[in-house]
Write a structure and sequence with these properties.
The complex is a heterodimer of chains A (113) and B (113).
Chain A lengths: L2 E5 L2 E5 L4 E8 L3 E9 L5 E6 L6 E3 L2 E6 L4 E6 L8 E9 L7 E3 L3 E6 L1
Parallel strand pairs in A: 2-11
Antiparallel strand pairs in A: 1-3, 3-8, 4-5, 4-9, 6-7, 7-8, 9-10, 9-11
Chain B lengths: L3 E4 L2 E4 L5 E7 L5 E7 L5 E9 L2 E4 L6 E3 L9 E3 L8 E8 L8 E2 L3 E5 L1
Parallel strand pairs in B: 2-11
Antiparallel strand pairs in B: 1-3, 3-8, 4-5, 4-9, 5-6, 7-8, 9-10, 9-11
The chains are: A mainly beta (113), B mainly beta (113).
Chain lengths: 113, 113
């Protein structure tokens, strides 16, 4: 059975801290791993990773994929209160279910001032 | 520049009533899907479609019907609403052949009393 597991489920930090969010997966015919940020409304896209060891970076956020060990991490440095959100990890497959995404339960990040 | 448009934003139903959640996209995406999001559960796939005339079930399809008569529209029907269907519903679309990145509608908060 395909599954995507995120940890921790929730995290509370203070502004300025660095956080690491984890996503492990067991999905056949892996194509890509995606990270989304959700603040009260619809998820918004952050990163898509397809190759191992290549870091994607956007400002204070960065992510990397390990296809051998089947996991990805999302790092946020110098956190701000605006980073408070649910971070979702999703995996896409090749083949007949191309386009379908398998989501984890998300990590609720709370950043205190 | 509408993207994915979902209506209504809020809805209250009585048990046993039926209704249709509307979803339209103007990006000519092949792939469309419906998710429900409950606290601590992430996004769970209800139904999806890989093109006009083609639909399939996701993880939690019971109590819901879909159809895809055009590329643009993918309505979700609740046949006989139950309190267990109280949730936030998201429609998403993607160009599966190019990238699995999903674009989400703004969500519908449904309460069944």
């Amino acid at each position: 059975e395909d599954k995507v597991v995120q940890s921790p489920l929730s995290l509370v930090v203070h502004e300025g801290d660095t956080v690491t969010l984890n996503c492990s997966y067991e999905v056949t015919n892996f194509r890509s791993l995606l990270w989304y940020k959700q603040e009260k409304k619809a998820p918004t896209f952050l990163f898509m990773l397809t190759s191992s060891g290549i870091e994607k970076k956007s400002g204070r956020l960065s992510s990397i994929l390990d296809k051998k060990e089947l996991f990805s991490i999302l790092n946020i440095t110098a956190t701000q209160t605006g980073d408070s959100a649910v971070y979702l990890c999703a995996v896409g497959r090749r083949g007949s279910t191309l386009g379908r995404l398998y989501f984890g339960r998300g990590t609720q990040l709370t950043v205190w001032p | 520049n509408a993207g994915v448009t979902q209506t209504p934003k809020f809805q209250v139903l009585k048990t046993g009533q039926s209704m249709t959640l509307q979803c339209a996209q103007d990006m000519n995406h092949e792939y469309m899907s419906w998710y429900r999001q409950d606290p601590g559960m992430g996004l769970r796939l209800i139904h999806y479609s890989v093109g006009a005339g083609i639909t399939d079930q996701g993880e939690v399809p019971n109590g819901y019907n879909v159809s895809r008569s055009t590329t643009e529209d993918f309505p979700l029907r609740l046949l006989s609403a139950a309190p267990s269907q109280t949730s936030v519903y998201f429609c998403a679309s993607s160009s599966a052949l190019d990238s699995p990145e999903a674009f989400f509608g703004q969500g519908t908060r449904l309460t069944v009393v």
